[in-house]
């Protein structure tokens, strides 16, 4: 039996995944959150359920393990009686910041296990077990459209996501409505850590580097606000069916490439 609107969110304990969880809780969704650290997941679940008066469950697991997304999708479908929305936000490869020259065989495999394999497993499981039509929202980065010396591993692998989502949109229509979001910059713990590590490697001051290389990348001279991201997620959670297989740019025109 369906138990109201429900969403499954990976990376839901922090950063973009957490902001997404808040946006959907605000709209009355019950949630299942996935991340590795059980303590942080519990804190996130408690904070969101008390703020928004929704039911928030969590599953501590690692996206890089086979079966994580199959288990998470099956458990959430059973618990909520079906999923309306699945959102995939991820971490970063361990080697990052690392150049093409520095990355090892294992680093490349780790990135595939972090981004592509769990996304494919989630799509397939959802198509087989879900009882409703679901929006399937995946977060990627504007850096997949330009080369960046130190993000080459994540970006090369994430560049495959639009291909996978387009294929899923065609194979699983109308059950799945996959949408890829190309993000600019948002001030999160993960973004701050990555940018500080790159600044240190270059012998630059992290705060100055953040202002110049993150905020000033957009002509708006800032990162996206939490409220802007929440508005986007609120819209995508009920995106028109005809957006199946689309790529949405949410990057404040960061970079000069043509989307
Ligand atoms: N923030 C930005 O400006 C920005 C821009 C473009 C793209 N992105 C991308 O968006 C994604 C999320 O970024 P963020 O800034 O929100 O990062 P974040 O603040 O570090 O949050 C990452 C979330 O993912 C979870 N996570 C990390 N590795 C995991 C794994 N192996 N298995 C399961 N969960 C895992 C983390 O919890 P645990 O550590 O407990 O597992 C946490 O909940 C990243 O892939 C990032 O590259 C970010």
Distinct small-molecule ligands in the complex: NADP nicotinamide-adenine-dinucleotide phosphate
Mean pLDDT: 97
Give the biggest beta sheet. 7 strands, parallel
Q: Going across the major beta sheet, what is the strand order?
A: 3-2-1-4-5-6-7
Q: Judging by the overall fold, what is the CATH architecture of the largest domain?
A: 3-Layer(aba) Sandwich
| Number of H/I helices | 9
Structure described in brief:
The protein is an alpha/beta fold. The protein folds into 2 domains: 6-184 and 226-250, Rossmann fold (3-Layer(aba) Sandwich); 188-223, no CATH class. Helix content is 44%, strand content 16%.
Explain what the structure shows.
The chain is an alpha/beta fold. The protein folds into two domains: 204 residues, NAD(P)-binding Rossmann-like Domain (Rossmann fold, 3-Layer(aba) Sandwich), CATH 3.40.50; 36 residues, no CATH class. Helix content is 44%, strand content 16%. The protein is built from nine helices and seven strands, in the order βαβαβαβαβααβαααβ. A seven-stranded parallel sheet has the order 3-2-1-4-5-6-7, with helices on both faces. The longest helix has 25 residues. The site of NADP nicotinamide-adenine-dinucleotide phosphate has 28 residues, from α1, β2, β5 and α7.
Write the topology of this structure.
Blueprint: E1 6-10, H1 15-26, E2 30-35, H2 38-52, E3 56-60, H3 68-80, E4 85-88, H4 105-129, E5 134-141, H5 152-158, H6 161-171, E6 176-183, H7 189-201, H8 206-213, H9 226-236, E7 246-250
Parallel strand pairs: 1-2, 1-4, 2-3, 4-5, 5-6, 6-7
The protein binds NADP nicotinamide-adenine-dinucleotide phosphate (NAP).
């Amino acid at each position: 039996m369906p138990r109201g609107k429900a969403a499954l969110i990976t990376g839901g304990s922090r950063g973009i995944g957490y902001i997404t969880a808040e946006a959907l809780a605000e709209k009355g969704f019950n949630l299942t959150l996935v991340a590795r650290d059980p303590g942080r997941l519990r804190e996130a679940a408690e904070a969101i359920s008390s703020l928004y008066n929704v039911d928030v469950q969590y599953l501590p697991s690692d996206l890089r393990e086979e079966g994580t997304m199959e288990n998470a999708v099956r458990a959430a479908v059973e618990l909520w009686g079906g999923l309306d929305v699945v959102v995939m936000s991820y971490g970063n490869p361990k080697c990052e910041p690392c150049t093409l020259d520095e990355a090892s065989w294992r680093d490349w495999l780790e990135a595939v296990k972090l981004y592509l394999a769990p996304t494919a497993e989630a799509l397939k499981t959802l198509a087989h077990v879900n009882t409703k039509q679901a929006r399937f929202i995946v977060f990627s980065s504007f850096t997949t459209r330009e080369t960046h010396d130190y993000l080459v591993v994540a970006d090369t692998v994430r560049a495959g996501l639009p291909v996978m989502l387009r294929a899923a949109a065609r194979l699983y229509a109308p059950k799945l409505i996959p949408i890829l979001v190309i993000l600019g910059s948002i001030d999160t713990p993960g973004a701050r850590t990555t940018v500080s590590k790159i600044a240190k490697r270059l012998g630059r001051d992290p705060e100055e580097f953040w202002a110049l290389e993150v905020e000033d990348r957009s002509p708006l001279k800032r990162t996206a606000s939490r409220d802007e991201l929440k508005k986007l997620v609120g819209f995508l959670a009920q995106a028109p069916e005809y957006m199946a297989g689309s790529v949405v740019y949410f990057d404040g025109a960061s970079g000069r490439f043509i989307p």
